[in-house]
Amino acid sequence: MDLFQKCISDPNAERLHMARELNVYPYFHVLESRQAPVVQMEGHRVIMLGSNNYLGFTEDPEVIAAGHAALDKYGTGVSGSRFLNGTLDLHLQLEKELAAFTGYEDCMTCSTGFQTNLAIISAICGKDDYILNDRENHASIYDACRLSFAKVMRYRHSNMEDLERILQSIPKTAGKLIVTDGVFSMRGDICKLPEIVALAQKYGARVMVDDAHGFGVLGPGGRGTAAYFGLTDKVDITMLTFSKSLASIGGCMLTSHKVADWLRHVSRPFIFSASLTPSSAATALAALHRLIQDPERPTRLMNIAKYFQKGLINAGIRIIEAPTPIVPIFTYETMDTLWYGKKMFEEGVYVNPVITPACVEGECLLRTTLMATHTEPVIDEAVGIIARVLREKPDHK
How deeply is 393 buried, as exposed, middle or buried, from its count of CB atoms within 10 A (0-12, 13-18, 19+)? Predict the structure, then answer.
């Protein structure tokens, strides 16, 4: 068979073809303005309920000014890896302040969040180790597991009995890493971190939390999932992304001095990648400063999320309720989900359709996310549009 045959004949290709034929293709919409509560997309005004800009810092004047200043001082890029010529004083300052803010000894930054998970897991785990992976963890964790050559064992989503069953089956002398999202990105639920930590201590495992959607959202002042549960000292590694609450691009690992120092010298995704651009590091640092200055912003975010949830429930819309700014709306079938997503976009609300293979058929949904800068009138408008569209019968059949 020709190598490229899969590009036209596998199920994903067929699904994309059908979506285009039915004019419900949901991807690559073109944004023509800043990432904000209300944006300009493809020529018209749209309420943005599909962004991970949780704290609204992408349009903060101080954050924007920091990016401009870094461009002026350092130029556009570093043209090399951190290991060689690509370490700036700005990188070190960002790492120092992130570690201090979150309560960890050390921090190692990477150029993207995806790369951060690759850098951590592929280096810390080897062929004789075991990784225990929640089934609903992010795709970057799955790819990092493959790169590690460790034995990967998946446990049912947030099922602690299943996790313990697997732990019991692993040799006591083997290295073990339990990896979980802090906040799961599709459904917005929070991991059962106290139970995970207890099992890790019982069976001699280490714990890593991917806090891409928890940092800036949960915990005192937005310090994340571990702080939310008061377990920062029990979580061995926390991973963060800068593309969400910190309004930039990049990621980091928070851990002990000894682990961070070792990884800086052995992690191939870290060593062989160009380092974080100056403007990206500067904007992430400025966003962190703004969060420190305004520790109630995560509370504002959660209040507007609760307001949105209440509005949807009052309108008779079935949602997944969770104490996070991720609010999934059930739409069940793939083509219905695509149709509703397209119709909402046309009516002025942007949402993210979640379809197979990201979920099983029959459990498709529209993923909505809130920003701290959303206002009640804008949310009321969005709820009205969503409710009106969901009352319609999809006409794609």
Answer: exposed
